[in-house]
Amino acid sequence: MKLFAVAGAMAVLFCQLASGFMIAPSAFAGSSVVSKSSATSPTSSLQMRARNCDLLGKKPNRKARVVTFSHKRIHKVQHLNLQWRKMYWEEGKRFVRLRLSTKAIKTIDKYGLNKAAKKFNLDLVKFTA
């Protein structure tokens, strides 16, 4: 356990755990704020992906609005109907795992996976399962 003092009107007690987390008691609600210490943990290889269609490149509509009875305009996000699909790629002789919108699934049903990927310049090697 390490103690640190913050200069100013309030002194804050930090407790560093063996896992590298820092816990600081909140001054307002009585709950603890937990943050990951970057010095003790290795960098993670996981990255957050955007909610976009891999084939068509469709993105969420961030300009949608809800109009209430009193005519207040509230902004909302209209997300895509994304589905994870594992499909067999005949030319590459392997399975690929794609995050597709329902429109992209219909496009693949119509043209086939290989032809649709060529039409939208998609490299299927990056999506091998």
UniProtKB/TrEMBL annotation:
InterPro entries hit by this protein: Ribosomal_bL28, Ribosomal_bL28/bL31-like_sf, Ribosomal_bL28_sf
Signal peptide: 1-20
GO CC, one annotated term: ribonucleoprotein complex
Gene3D superfamilies assigned: Ribosomal protein L28/L24
Keywords for the protein's UniProt record, in alphabetical order: Ribonucleoprotein, Ribosomal protein, Signal
GO MF terms, alphabetically ordered: structural constituent of ribosome
UniProt cross-references to Pfam families, sorted A to Z: Ribosomal_L28
Family: Belongs to the bacterial ribosomal protein bL28 family.
Protein name: 50S ribosomal protein L28
Record organism: Ectocarpus siliculosus
